[in-house]
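Data availability (excerpt). The following record was deposited with the supplementary files.
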Amino acid sequence: MMSGEHPAAAAGSFVAMDKRSMVGLLVLIGVALIGTLALQAVWLRNSIMLRRTVLAESLDRALLNVSEHLDRIERFSDLQRDARGKRLLMRLDTLRRIAAHAPPGVVGSRDLLDPVEQELLVADLVRSILATDLHKDIRERIDPMLLDSLMREELRAAGVDGGYAYAVFGADGHAVLPTDDHTDSATWADTPHRVLLFRHRLTNPGAELRLVLVHPTGMVMRGVWPKVFVAVLFMAMIVAGFLIAIRIIQRQKRLSDIRNDLVNNMTHELKTPISTIGLACEALADPSVPRTEEQVRNWINMIRNENKRLGSLVENVLQSAVMDSGGMVLKRVDLDVHALIEDVVRGSSMQVSRRSGIITTDLQAEIHRMPADRTHLTNLLYNLIDNAVKYTEAAPRIRIATRSDHEGLHLSVSDNGIGIPASEQKKIFERLYRIPTGNVHNAKGHGLGLSYVRNVVRGHGGTIRVESTPGRGSTFRIFLPFHHVTDRDTSRGG
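Predicted structure:
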């Protein structure tokens, strides 16, 4: 769980180069992402401006069409009301019929007015209409219902179904035809959407038809929202992908560092017992080395203990391989947990005594027989004791206690070690995770032990938690239920 030796110079150079490449890659992706977001923002801004321009042109065109309609309708009405106008219309209509049925180049002149008579008739008609227009009020010249019908039709064609107000203003700037009481005078005065009415008439009254949008921004955005939604969705996907990529890269980098550290630590720990066993064998084989029976016994015990240590290291690697394969198979037997604890304590006593430590037990569980896997529970206890010995600066003081209730067996392993910071307590059960801080540099952890312990507990349907205060030791509390879930679930590796 603690930091190991530094990597070799070549490995360090490779890691440093890898860091530079990773930083460069992240910077490159970041710049590309920012550029993409900027282009998307510019594209959205241009789309909104284009939609605003198109809408304004559509509204102005609609007002112009309404003005043209009103002008044509008034002309026709003037002609219909005047007798001379009716006569002129009848003559023109007759001319159109004759022209439609006559051979090319032949026009029935008998149905036409005499040119002089026609000129006089048109002149009298124009004077009559002008004289009439001079006395007409703008309210008399516009039918409100007709105006409303034309406005609705033209604005609907422009894509505006509602959310607008319109009014006719006289030459003096005052509203003279239907207006919206909720629109203030400043808004009417500032609106860019306006058109002169009857602008082709010689007696132009100077009246304007003005249009105001109630929610212009919403009307502009209504045509852009689908594009905005798609653009924002894609931008969010790009940002999310970028963040996920950064997280994956950082995680892979951390795992790579941990694996490199693990290899260094494993190499160191494998070399130590091998060297010790080699020295002991040479001493036993060298006839020139004086030996007593006690010395021979010590060398043999040393070889046995170092061999056991090698076996433990290999077991950790095998446990890691089992977890990589996706599960562990539990072979449950009717197990006496108290007897198992006593066997583990006897097997660990020499390791603890080397540090002038002691293991005590407080086995109070009334029910301590249960179906469990002997091998995995044994390894679980050895892992916890091994951690307690390695991460204790003073002489180890380890206490193993049990109790039981109607649900299951409660097992706790306490030590007087360096403790675990609160911020790290949820992470220590992660595979290959080792606490990055501390001052016990002689301890060579692999980051496999506690992850394996958690998997064993979960495989038995139990739970594990840690209570720890830096500098005051740790207590691992394990609960193993008497009644397990199905075999398929308990064989799962967690």
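Summary of structural features: The radius of gyration is 48 Å.
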